[in-house]
Amino acid sequence: MAERGSWASIKQYGLLSTSALLDHYTVQPPRKTEIESRHRPRSVELTSAGLPRAVVRDQIPMSDEGLRRALPDRLSPKDWYELLNRKAFFWLSEERLHKLTTAKAYRDKEHDVLEVDTRSLIGAHSDSIWLCPINSGCTKPMPHPRDETIFARISDYPYAHWRERRSRRERVVELAVDHAVEDIRQHIRRVVVKRGAEVLSVLE
User: Fold this and answer.
1) pLDDT tens digit string along 145-203?
2) Closest CA to 176 of 138, 137, 128, 140
3) Which of 40, 97, 105, 132 could crosslink 59 through cysteines, CB 3.0-4.6 Å?
4) Cα-trace Rg, the chain
5) Cβ burial, residue 59 (10 Å; 0-12/13-18/19+)
6) Alpha carbons 43 and 179: distance in angstroms, whole number
7) Beta-strand runs (E) in the chain
8) What is the pTM assigned to this prediction?
9) Based on the number of CB atoms within 10 Å of its own CB, is 175 exposed (0-12), middle (13-18) or buried (19 or more)?
């Protein structure tokens, strides 16, 4: 799920994490710190000479207060924002995607949605992939406990543990890739424009 109109740029430069996007646009402190290390209550537009407009998406489903309740004392909200911002994220089920696109904050907006061949993506990036059993970027309404160990490499993921406790579609909730997927175009099955759960058009 990406900002409406962002597919052309993603196709050219790859699917970049927030940190990678800030580097690509040569964003410097203190603005970089504001975007990368603090909560984003709204989306942030980036511009740079010779580059198309880009948008760093908001973090409405998350809050400092929720993270303080969810994280151990050794981790701060800043630590968590920076951890997430270093990764590019994918939902692993359409149900999870639609839960977000139909949420109050997003249901009236259009989004570019990339449908990816998971086998192809893993084949190319297995050493950079993490799996996660929760929505790591959400603390509302319940700030589920978390720390950096909720992310595990594919070979280390406790799949058997979650198989005993969850339905098949909920055993792994997120797939994250370190830094960026620069060759994302090679793994695309389809790119559509969605509003809520409705497909408005097919881009590719």
Assistant:
1) 999 999 999 999 999 999 999 999 999 999 999 999 999 999 999 999 999 999 999 99
2) 128
3) 40
4) 17
5) buried
6) 20
7) 2-3, 15-16, 44-48, 51-56, 87-91, 110-116, 129-132, 174-178, 180-181, 188-195, 198-202
8) 0.95
9) buried
Query: pLDDT by residue (tens digit) across 50-88?
Result: 999 999 999 999 999 999 999 999 999 999 999 999 999
Backbone angles phi, psi at 119, to 5 degrees: -60, -45
- The token pair that represents 110 in the structure block: 């259009």
Tokens of 158: 């406790």
What pLDDT was estimated at residue 4?
A: 96
Domain boundaries, the chain: 2-202
H or E element: which one contains 23?
helix 18-24
Angle at 186 between CA 180 and CA 192, to 5 degrees: 90
Q: What is the pLDDT of residue 180?
A: 99
Taking a C-beta distance cutoff of 8 angstroms, is the pair 74, 160 a contact? Answer: no
Token representation of residue 108: 């009236």
**What's the CA gap between 124 and 118, in Å, rounded?**
10
The residue type found at 194 is K
Long-range own/partner contacts, residues 93-97 (CB < 8 A, 24 or more apart): 93/169, 93/170, 95/169, 96/135, 96/173, 97/1
